[in-house]
């Protein structure tokens, strides 16, 4: 099919002159008795909902106070969602007007250019005074025909920031709108509304009739109708934003994902569509997991894949680096795999001319770095710390330190920074036996050393060994000794042990295998939502997964070589050792295989 | 090809051209959630949308150039796949395709067109079957003839519209739902041009912005899911610079004056004028049976036709011969090699006696992208030249009329 339409983003226009029509208004004289009670009840409910959310609506302004777009506060500390294309015009230190008429200083926290979302934080006038905020709804339950409320500051009408409300129905859900402009601002799985949105509504909230936030309004279809409401507007679904919210709070410059494979319809003319893999990039995780040309995509992240739009909708709501279950049909067999998604912006930089799958958006430009603050408040500027790969590293440090502080409840290991010995048994399927692990940190002049005895003894001097094959010892583990060296280092040294990187990595799903060793019925069912810590020491990178429930370290991945399979370590059976919680069951996986299970019966934690 | 522009602050900051070939099929079932209704007797919008969507198709046909969409909407009016839609250029193709609500992509064929009602009936043609053979599609559909027997909806009544506005939906993606009220039940007297809007009967005028690209042929329904009308084309009120949102009612009627040759009392043939009423229910009922005969009218006034770029000698006589004075550089005529002093004698075999006749023929028979065969007398010889007409070049825009930045002028 050929598509021809102007997709336009709803940032605010240059100030517009409006003719004001004066309408004389005669208040209705009908008494409540004349009107159906259900109508009055519905009206009263609507008014109550609007009143409830009203104080949390933000007019996002340029540093001087000139209107730019809208936003909505989602956290009592003053964190507010808006569009990326709104903060792109305000810079990192916007002002934010609330319905109470007060203009607050604000700072950009995180942004998602592809998904057109940004998180800002308003600074309270009185220290620690909580802001009004709204609750997040579940946009997967939104249906065509549901009523909705859009709020914001269209045309910068309200000089006192009192928000405008419009009321209408949801025209469509799971809509796909291709990138507007240079590869960014792609609206996947979005909500289509007839609820009137206009320039200035950008970044403002879309509510269901319970007053729950279901989307962020951002663009519309206009074509020849001009850049005002044409009955077709789009909101980014809140469930997509939830996937990125951990990244946004952590000040990360987020990226969306590609599968690392070109996927297209088997035949455009067939009565029903089949989505098949046309080509797989060799450097992708999908390739390493065994995805092959000709495989038919059946389910992706738990959803049926039956069209190009649907495929893009599913893919588009995930951040780069997430592992997502993928089910394909090959011959008459159905195969399920967990695939680590590749970056969208990074991948798109390398054109893939041979692919004849779904159209690829053009190469996005390397966006200019966020300009240094200009004109914003000096108070807010204290909370802005630019860094490569991050929108605002100040908030990454904040979230990272919060995460580490919470994790420390399970044990403080700085006092036992000496050599550790773990004894127990191992189970590698055919081979079983006793196990002894020695983790010896750098002491005086001696280099650190890891010894792992699984009947035969393996040794690794992690800082001296440069041979990648030897770094990956024991054979088949993907680098278990190196991984355990980093684990000891993280627990005992913390930030000071990781000179190259030590940052919050946002929110990711983690898939620990059943501890009874059984084969899981579905990989998707294993998912646990985690906060991620990313570290780099020497040339080795690690991703540490902390449960969002209790901040316990559930496991980690150690990448001996970037973009190759990591050594995966899964922790369970945590028990106290001298008042500190340590895992007594360690499952090690590499590639698609389990390397073995280490059962620890005794830890000896040496002091420095 | 699609042009996707990013407009910010009223200015075009950056535009990109994005090839977007969409093939769509979508299996996410619409759940049936009950939401509080305005009044208890009515069905929730969510239920109505789902039920109605199953009686609708997305239509894909000719277009995709100039401002003509190659996509539209249609209403199923029989279980065998008869579809009512708007009589647009979309149907001028042998490669007409519809997508059903369940994602099936099927071929379709035009059965009959009635320009006076701006309506057409197309029918799904299954591979290996003749168009009039019975099939086992067993589709859900609107009984238009029954719907036309209900009284028209009243001004102020709630309505819903289901359309494929802006081609948002493909394959099994559901159509877009909009709601509003009926503002008026009236005739659109101040229409722009008969070519664009041939229908002269009553219409429902709507307060919702329903008549967007691709919406023509969509369904207008009431709060109980009854079919009220067919969403019309995109038309603009040139006085107020506003777009009209209207639908042609299911009971639409048009009175036409036609000339008929009868024998007078002496047995001589004479022409008399009589009034013929054309109605939507009759059109649908007979049209589906293959028995409907569109009323033959005299040559209708038509649009401006395709663009050729020929400049003729001054048209001073009643029948000035079609001598070429000049051709616009880079125009279709220039590219095809038409030269000054050529005399246009025939177009597609029709003799051209004057400049006026040439213009009339072009208007009546062509549009952008039409290919015509022109025979010109050049000196002593007769030359045949093939000419592919183009869209008319944009006329210079009038000075700023609208206050809104970024608003495209028409």
Question: What would you say this structure looks like, in words?
Answer:
- The complex is a heterodimer of chains A (608) and B (410).
- Helix content of chain A is 15%, strand content 36%.
- Chain A has 608 residues and is an alpha+beta fold.
- The model of chain A is unreliable at 1-6, 13-28 and 347-370 (pLDDT under 50).
- Chain A contains 10 helices and 32 strands.
- Chain A starts with 6 loop residues before the first strand and ends with a strand.
- Chain B is mostly beta strands and 410 residues long.
- Chain B contains 5 helices and 24 strands.
- Chain B has helices spanning 45-53, 144-149, 280-289, 332-336, 355-365, and strands spanning 2-8, 11-18, 56-60, 71-76, 82-86, 96-99, 105-114, 119-125, 158-163, 176-187, 202-206, 219-221, 227-231, 235-237, 242-244, 246-249, 253-263, 269-279, 310-312, 324-327, 343-347, 350-351, 371-378, 381-388.
- In chain B, the strands form 7 sheets. A 6-stranded antiparallel β-barrel of chain B has the order 3-4-5-8-7-6.
- In chain B, strand 1 and strand 2 form a beta hairpin.
- The longest helix of chain B is centred in the C-terminal third of the chain and has 11 residues, at 355-365.
- Chain B is globular.
- Residues 1-40, 191-195 and 396-410 of chain B have low confidence and may be disordered.
- At the A-B interface, strand 1, helix 1, strand 9, strand 18 and helix 5 of A face strand 1, strand 2, helix 1 and strand 10 of B.
């Amino acid at each position: 099919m050929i598509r021809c339409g102007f997709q336009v983003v709803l940032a605010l226009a240059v100030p517009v002159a409006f003719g004001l029509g004066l309408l004389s208004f005669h208040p209705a004289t009908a008494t409540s008795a004349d009107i159906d009670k259900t109508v009055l009840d519905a009206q009263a409910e609507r008014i109550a909902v609007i009143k409830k959310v009203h104080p949390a609506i933000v007019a996002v302004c340029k540093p001087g106070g000139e209107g730019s777009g809208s936003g909505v506060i989602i956290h009592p500390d003053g964190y507010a969602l808006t569009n990326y294309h709104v903060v792109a015009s305000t810079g990192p230190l916007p002002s934010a007007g609330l319905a109470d008429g007060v203009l607050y200083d604000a700072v950009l926290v995180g942004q998602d250019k592809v998904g057109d979302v940004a998180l800002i934080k308003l600074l309270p006038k009185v220290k620690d005074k909580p802001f009004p905020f709204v609750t997040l709804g579940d946009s997967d339950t939104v249906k065509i025909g549901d009523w909705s409320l859009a709020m914001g500051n269209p045309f910068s009408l309200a000089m006192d920031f009192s928000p405008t409300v419009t009321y209408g129905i949801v025209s469509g859900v799971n809509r796909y709108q291709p990138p507007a402009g240079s590869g960014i601002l792609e609206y996947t799985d979005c909500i289509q509304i007839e609820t009137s949105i206009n320039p200035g509504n950008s970044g403002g909230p879309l509510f269901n009739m319970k007053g729950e936030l279901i989307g962020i309004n951002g663009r519309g279809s206009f074509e020849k109708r001009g850049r005002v409401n044409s009955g077709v507007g789009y909101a980014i679904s809140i469930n997509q934003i939830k996937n990125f919210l951990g990244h946004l709070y952590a000040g990360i410059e987020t990226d969306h994902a590609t599968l690392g494979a070109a996927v297209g319809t088997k035949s455009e003319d067939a009565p029903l569509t089949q989505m098949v893999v046309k080509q797989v990039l060799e450097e992708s995780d999908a390739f390493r997991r065994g995805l092959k040309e000709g495989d038919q995509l059946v389910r992706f992240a738990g959803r049926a894949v039956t069209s190009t739009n649907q495929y893009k909708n599913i893919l588009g709501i995930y951040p780069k680096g997430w592992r997502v279950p993928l089910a394909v049909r090959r011959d008459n067999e159905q195969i399920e795999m967990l695939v680590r998604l590749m970056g969208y912006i990074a991948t798109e930089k390398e054109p893939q001319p041979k692919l004849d799958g779904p159209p690829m958006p053009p190469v996005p430009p390397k966006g200019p770095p966020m300009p240094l603050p200009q004109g914003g408040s000096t108070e807010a500027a204290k909370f802005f710390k630019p860094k490569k790969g991050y929108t605002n590293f100040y908030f990454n440090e904040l979230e990272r330190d919060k995460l580490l502080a919470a994790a420390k409840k399970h044990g403080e290991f700085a006092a036992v920074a000496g050599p550790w010995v773990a004894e127990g048994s191992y189970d590698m399927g055919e081979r079983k036996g006793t196990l002894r692990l020695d983790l010896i940190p750098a002491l005086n002049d001696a280099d650190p050393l890891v010894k792992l005895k699984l009947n035969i003894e393996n040794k690794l001097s992690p800082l001296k060994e440069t041979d990648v094959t030897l770094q990956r010892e024991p054979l088949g583990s993907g680098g278990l000794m190196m991984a355990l060296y980093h684990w000891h280092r993280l627990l005992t040294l913390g930030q000071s042990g990781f000179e190259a990187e030590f940052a919050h990595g946002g929110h990711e799903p983690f898939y620990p295998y059943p501890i009874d060793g059984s084969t899981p019925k579905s990989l998707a069912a294993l998912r646990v939502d985690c906060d991620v810590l990313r570290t780099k020491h020497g040339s080795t990178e690690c991703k540490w997964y902390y449960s969002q429930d209790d901040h316990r370290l559930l496991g980690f991945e150690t990448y001996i070589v970037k973009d190759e399979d990591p050594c995966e370590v899964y922790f369970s059976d945590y028990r106290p050792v001298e008042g500190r919680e340590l895992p007594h069951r360690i499952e090690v996986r590499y590639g698609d295989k389990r390397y073995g299970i280490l059962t620890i019966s005794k830890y000896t934690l040496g002091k420095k | 090809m699609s042009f996707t522009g990013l407009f910010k602050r009223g200015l075009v900051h950056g535009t990109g051209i994005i090839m977007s070939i969409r093939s769509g099929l979508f299996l996410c079932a619409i759940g049936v959630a009950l939401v509080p209704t305005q009044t208890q007797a009515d069905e929730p919008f969510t239920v109505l949308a789902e039920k109605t969507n199953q009686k609708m198709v997305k239509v894909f046909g000719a277009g995709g150039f100039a401002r003509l969409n190659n996509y539209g909407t249609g209403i199923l009016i029989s279980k065998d796949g008869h579809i009512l839609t708007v009589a647009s250029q979309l149907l001028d193709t042998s490669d007409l395709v519809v997508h059903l609500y369940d994602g099936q992509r099927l071929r379709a064929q035009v059965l009959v067109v009635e320009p006076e009602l701006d309506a057409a009936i197309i029918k799904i043609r299954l591979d290996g079957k003749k168009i009039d053979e019975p099939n086992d599609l067993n589709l859900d559909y609107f009984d238009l003839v029954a719907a036309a027997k209900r009284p028209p909806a009243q001004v102020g009544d709630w309505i819903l519209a289901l359309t494929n506005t802006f081609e948002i939906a493909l394959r099994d993606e559901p159509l877009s739902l909009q709601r509003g009220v009926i503002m008026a039940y009236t005739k659109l007297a101040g229409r722009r041009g008969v070519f664009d809007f041939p229908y002269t009967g009553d219409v429902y005028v709507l307060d919702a912005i329903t008549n967007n690209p691709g919406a023509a042929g969509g369904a207008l329904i009431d709060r109980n899911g009854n079919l009220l009308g067919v969403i019309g084309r995109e038309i603009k009120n040139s006085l107020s610079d506003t777009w009209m949102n209207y639908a042609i009612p299911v009971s639409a009627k048009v009175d036409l004056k036609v000339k008929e040759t009868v024998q007078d009392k002496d047995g001589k043939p004479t022409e008399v004028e009589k009034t013929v009423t054309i109605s939507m229910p009759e059109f649908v009922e007979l049209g589906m049976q293959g028995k409907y005969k569109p009323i033959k009218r005299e040559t209708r006034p038509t649009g401006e036709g395709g663009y050729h770029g020929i400049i003729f000698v001054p048209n001073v006589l009643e029948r000035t011969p079609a001598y070429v004075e000049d051709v616009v550089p880079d125009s279709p005529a220039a590219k095809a090699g038409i030269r000054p002093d050529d005399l246009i004698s025939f177009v597609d075999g029709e003799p051209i006696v004057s400049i006026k006749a040439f213009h009339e023929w072009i208007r009546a028979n062509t549009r952008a992208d039409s290919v015509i065969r022109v025979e010109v007398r050049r000196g002593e010889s007769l030359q045949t030249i093939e000419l592919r007409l183009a869209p008319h070049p944009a006329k210079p825009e009038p000075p700023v009329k609208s206050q809104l930045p970024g608003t495209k002028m028409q």
